[in-house]
Amino acid sequence: MTSNYIQIANWLTSKEIVELQAWLLNLFAKEAPLSHPFISTPSHIEQITSAYMLIDDDSARIRIKESLRCAIFTHDIHVDGERSLVRLSQLATSVKSSPSLLALSQKFLDHELEPLFRNGEHHIISELISCLRSDPSSGKSAVLFESLYYDRPFEYHNAIHPQHTAQIFIGLCEQNPNSFTDHVSLLLRYFESNKELFKPNYLIRTFANTVSLHTIA
Question: Are 8 and 42 in contact (CB under 8 A)?
């Protein structure tokens, strides 16, 4: 298995940004079959991530991350589909590509993902928010989370599912644990009007793991 990852790493480092960008979009959007040096299992994301971790050339790593950022930036949800955006974002999370996740945040802020809310694609939205939460240091994610939590822009308004509200609340706490008191009252209002859609035990456990008891006290 390791020899395969070494071959994949060598293959990745041999490609230019434009080539990798097109390849990533083709791989995830069109589900193009993988060819040598890739193998059938594990998943595409796992193979690429494992190979990436073997690369010690910083310039090659930067080139790969930039190709991923460009793939997310140019992704068209109407042409490439929502599932491929999730996979690209999950790969960005796996290789810790903050610029790629910034590009994802910008797609939300630029209204590009409005169809997901309008069409009730709650699972897709939840997966994308989870990816954004993986980079709590991102200022762009903080702006997005606060905008979705309080302002409800882009005509989303009531399209925000309570599940997303809870996720965004945790995301805000991850970015600034000391600010949880600023956000909890709105969360409780959502909970009161949508009790059947919340998972309070899971939310409480996640909150407790995010905000220390010292901070809560």
Answer: no
**pLDDT tens by residue, the chain, 217 residues:** 678 899 999 999 999 999 999 999 988 887 666 676 787 778 889 999 999 999 999 999 999 999 999 999 999 999 999 999 999 999 999 999 999 999 998 998 888 988 888 888 888 998 999 899 888 666 677 788 887 777 654 444 445 666 778 888 888 888 888 788 888 887 887 777 776 666 777 777 777 777 765 566 5
Q: How far, CA to CA in Å, does 113 sit from each of 83, 100, 102, 110, 121?
A: 12, 16, 14, 8, 10
Q: Using CA atoms, how far apart are residues 183 and 53, in angstroms rounded to an integer?
A: 37
Sign of the dihedral defined by the CA atoms of residues 121, 124, 130, 131, in that order: negative
Which of 62-98 are b and which e, b meaning 16 or more Cβ less than 10 Å from the residue's Cβ?
A: ebbbbbbbbbbeebebeebbbebbbbbbbbbbbbebb
- Could you give the CA distance from residue 169 to residue 150 in angstroms, rounded to a whole number? 11
Cis check: omega of the bond before 177, within 30 degrees of 0: no
How many CB atoms within 10 Å of residue 60? 17
| Terminal-residue alpha carbon distance, the chain | 49
